[in-house]
Design goal:
Helix content: 10-25%
Organism: Methylobacterium terrae
Structural class: alpha+beta
Protein name: RAG2 PHD domain containing protein
Order of helices and strands: EEEHE
Number of helices: 1
Number of strands: 4
């Protein structure tokens, strides 16, 4: 009988992951950005609405997961 690839009886906790959160604001060049607060993602958008839509979709539309920045933002490579 073949052995299962995963031991379903193992009591191993999944690694803790922090929930995604985004800052939305303008870059120094005037572009709209959505920047993930842990530095894992983001993008440049045509409008504030597009940046907010992306950030909300990425966070599952969780309350308080998307904030507007009060300073200029930058994407870091």
């Amino acid at each position: 009988m073949p052995r299962p690839l995963i031991d379903a009886t193992a009591n191993v906790a999944a690694p803790a992951r922090l929930p995604l959160a985004f800052l939305v604001g303008r870059s120094a060049e005037g572009h709209w950005l959505a920047v993930e607060t842990h530095g894992l993602g983001g993008g440049i958008f045509r409008s504030r609405r597009d940046a907010l839509h992306y950030a909300a979709a990425e966070t599952g539309r969780r309350p308080d997961a998307v904030r507007l920045a009060d300073t200029t933002l930058a994407l870091v490579p």
